[in-house]
Structures are given as structure tokens and as C-alpha cells.
Amino acid sequence: MAKQPMLKFVKIERDMPEKRGATIRNKDFDEIYAEFADAKAKEQASRCSQCGVPYCQSHCPLHNNIPDWLRLTAMGRLQEAYDISQSTNTFPEICGRICPQDRLCEGNCVIESSGHGTVTIGSVEKYITDTAWEKGWVTPAAPTAERSESVGVIGAGPGGLAAADMLRRAGVQVTVYDRYDRGGGLLTYGIPGFKLEKDVVMRRIKQLEDGGVRFVFNCNVGADMPFEDIREQHDAVIIATGVYKSRDLRGPGAGAAGIVKAIDYLTASNRAANFGDKVPEFESGELNANGKKVVVIGGGDTAMDCVRTAIRQGATSVKCLYRRDRANMPGSQREVQNAEEEGVVFEWLTAPQGFKGEPVSAVLAQKMRLGLPDASGRQSPEIIEGSDYEEPADLVIKALGFEPEELPTLWGAPELEVTRWGTVKAEFTSGRTALPGVYAVGDIVRGASLVVWAIRDGRDCAEHVLQDFDRQAAIAAE
């Protein structure tokens, strides 16, 4: 009888890939975690209990078949593990790096609740796909037959790219339009290299190009090309623009120099640090934290990206102001821990009320306490009277989240229906909008969300686009 390769969580403790020391990693933009060695990946995968009802899988937006590819990894059958992993996930090596596993798959691991420590699912997923790239198992789309239908995808972020990949593999002619000079969207310009090195994203873009996906960069729809022209050129259009409009701060002095948007700050850093681009705002110091006292306002993953970037740029101090406590922050707890190790100071239960100086020299802050729950069930922060103080700052970064741009106005398409939040109104799962042949996926439908949800939306939408094409062809043949 073959030796049981699984259920070793009682004998083998949870172990993560080695993390580079904080005083070393906080000086560069390389990823902070080392790669699992083959033996360690097998060992950690073997801890899986192979649940009859795998909560890791059900809590994954893509419903990845996690227990099966863990078992195959433990058995040394890595190519089969990769085949299963990529069958439900277009970009497993990206999800393995940036998904908040502590809130999704790993956070719902059964052996975690039994006190044995969760399986390191994300690290194994990353290892499987990185090995697949190294071994040449990852190949461009090679459809068995070409189709005549053409689809235009607006936005080269994770949702748009996932849809493009699925459609191209089915033989559809796909063109992706994007406002930036490189593909990837926030994967490229929003997420820092220490979480997602940019060659990981660029090789996926090349794979799509090699598979026949056409990219049109530096194309700002509505300005450089009318939305109607894209509709006329294609049999279907998928809107996957994401949400890029930053939520703003109010209060005295909010317009002072030195108060910047997180997306502008991170884009400048990614261009300069990861691609070597010449960025005037970075070189002038406007979007550079070097030698400055930095205050980041917000408690999500974007705020964590900003504080950790500022440390690496050589800020003299970095503080994060968040109006709730640690337990109620929306960002990943793992990211908070990494930030603290690297020298970031968190000021919990603290909110800005205004700003001092021109350019900014301090944040006028007040301490908060948590009161009654709000409509979402979270406790609402309340100001503690008399707790005002000044937090010195040479650079203030607003990381308060993102909202959708006004696409009907920007694109001259008033018939494109939006919700009261400004997101595109689209059918659940299919992504169909009220406009014939127009679909929408990802954050522009959901509001600011996770990369893994955008991938799920893109894949689901592509499946329904194909179904609609087949239905139209059947009707035409009658």
C-alpha cells in the first residue's frame, strides 16, 4: 500500500517561506519572501487534511481546487498540480503573491480552527506556478480553431486580462485598450514590487501577446478614441476599467501642496523604482518620500502599500493614521505586521480634521473611540473632545479608497447605465449591461475590491460572451 502523503498537520508545523530581514528588505523593492524549496513545498502541502467539505475552496472567489493541487504537490506531481491550479485561475502566481489569504482560503482552513496552524496555501500556489514558468509548462493560447467574432476589452487590469485570455483560448479575436503604456493596470502601477515584482506581470502580458491578443496602449477611451468607435469595430465590448477616482479629504488646508493621492504616489514609485522611467514629479520630490516625515491616512491595503513604499524611499519617519482600531481595519493583518517590522508607526483611533502649512507641515488630528455599529455592522468612530493634536508631516498621502469615474460623461455615452454609486450597472455573473453587446466586469461593477474577484468576473463574463456568440450564430443559421 502506498504511503499516505497527506494529513501530516499533527506532526509537521506550519512554516512560511523565509522572509528577508526587515532592515535589509526595507531598503529595496524586491519581494520579501523567498521561494519554497521543492522539499519544503511538498512538506507544507502534506499538512492538508483533505477535508470532505473544503472551506478553503468554498471561500476562494475562484473556487480553486486547492485540496487536489496540494495533494499532487505533496506527491511530487507538480505539472498536474499546475494544470489543476490554472484550470480555475488565469493568474495563480499573482494570486499566490497578493491575495489576502488570511481572509480567504487560509483564514478558513479547518486545521487552523483546530489549533494546528493553517496550510500555507498562497506560498504553495506561488511555488507551483513559478516552477511551471521555469519548466516551460505555461504556454500561450493555442485555439484549436479561430473564430470570426471580435471582442474589444477596455482596461488591461486583472479582470480585462482574464477575460481576454479565456476568449482568445476559444479562438475569439481580442483587442485590449488601455490608458497606460504597459498592461496590468494596478498590478503594474498600483501594487509595489515588494509584493509583486513587475517581471511577473510583464511575462503574462507577453504570453497574451504571443497567444494573439492585440494591445493598444496609451489609449484613453473618450479622449483618444470614442467609445462608439470601439463598439463599431467589435462584436462585443467588455468594460474593465477598474476604479481610479480617489476619495478626497476635506477640512481646513486640504488643498495644500504636499498632500497627494495614493494612486499618483504609487504610480510614480513603480515607474521609477521598477521600470527606471523618468518621472518628473518623483525627481522633483513632489511624489518622493526621501528625507521627509510622511503621514498616510487610511487603513486598507493601499495605505499599507504607501507606508511600506515611503520607508523604502528613505523617509525619516512614517506614520499611518486610521480612525478605527487594529481589529477593525480593512487591510491585511499580515501587511500591518510587515509594515511594523519595517519601521512604520500606526496611530490607531486617529482621524485628520485639517492640515497646517503651505506646503503642509502638520496634520491636525483628533483621537477617536468606537461607538455604536453603523449600517455595515462595524462600530462607528466618534471624536473624543479635547483630544486635538498636531502630527508633523512634510508629505501626506491620501489612501481613502477609490470611486468610479463618470464613464457615461467621459465617454459621451449617456445610455450606459450606472448605479447611484457610479458603478456600471451590469448583470450578475454574465456582466451584461443594458447596451447590446456591451459587458462590464471587476471593480467598475463591484466598486473597489480584490484582484481575485476581478479575475473571477473576467472569466465568468468571457464564458457568457461565448454563449451569446453561439446563440447569435444559431439564430442566424435558422
UniProtKB/TrEMBL annotation:
Residue ranges occupied by any FAD/NAD(P)-binding domain in the UniProt entry: 151-458
Top EC category: oxidoreductase
NCBIfam families registered for this protein in UniProt: gltD_gamma_fam
Keyword Repeat: no
UniProt protein name: Glutamate synthase (NADPH) small subunit
UniProt entry tagged with the keyword Metal-binding: yes
Lineage top rank: taxon: Bacteria
UniProt keyword terms in alphabetical order: 4Fe-4S, Iron, Iron-sulfur, Metal-binding, Oxidoreductase
Domain Dihydroprymidine dehydrogenase: 25-136
One Gene Ontology molecular-function label: 4 iron, 4 sulfur cluster binding
Gene source species: Salipiger abyssi
Any Pfam family hit: Fer4_20
EC number(s) stated in the UniProt entry for this protein: 1.4.1.13
UniProt cross-references to SUPFAM superfamilies, sorted A to Z: alpha-helical ferredoxin (SSF46548), Nucleotide-binding domain (SSF51971)
Coiled coil, from the record: none
